[in-house]
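Worked example

This section walks through a single chain of length 223. The input is the sequence exactly as stored; nothing has been trimmed or padded.
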Amino acid sequence: METIPTGGLKVWAVDTAEGQATVEKMTGIVLVQALCRFLYAKPFEETGGQEAPMCFSTDSLNGVFNPSLGQLPEHLAKIGMPSGQCLFCPFSQYGTRSKGNGNNGRGQACQQKRLLLMLTEGSQMPQVVSIPPSGLKAAKKYLVDLQALGLEYWQVLTEITLTDAKNMDGITYARPKFRLVEQLPQSLLKPVKNYRVELEQQLPVNQLAAQYPNLPSVTDSAA
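Given that input, the structure is written out below as tokens.
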């Protein structure tokens, strides 16, 4: 899985057979994508996302609460109870994200992330790329711009680099930047489309989102 390092470093951390490596950019075909939400019992800073979420959504519209994890911790119980509808859920409101020091930040307790299943250059298998809240606007604009050109995201070669940014607290972080490299040749469109269908059958979006908490997560310092 490709992740964004902390501290504003403008390189991607990539897991390989030889261990973790860093690259300045990722180029590949986005095969499947989903806008998801994750609510964790403990602040991200404490766990790195390495635990099952109390509630998650595969479409950012309808949440699935996991009662098997027990009661909400005190800092979340003060906010309310997860709602089935993300729009009206108290945890999707800004200003509810815990910083882990007893204070809340400007972000949402239930964080929104865009998960990309991306076949990158030099890889035989697609990788999960997590776009954190700070990169959602850029990702959405890129997808809309592609649609304006009459293109689907899986019909093009996409490049994702990282640019410098600072949040309102002056903390430096790396923000994803998307670029259309080129359209895929006609000869590849049918094979890629068939591969997408196969992937969606083997790994539906709900399973992708459900497996995500067990994968290395992107650290987002912007919220």
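What to look for: Residues 213-223 have pLDDT under 50 and may be disordered.
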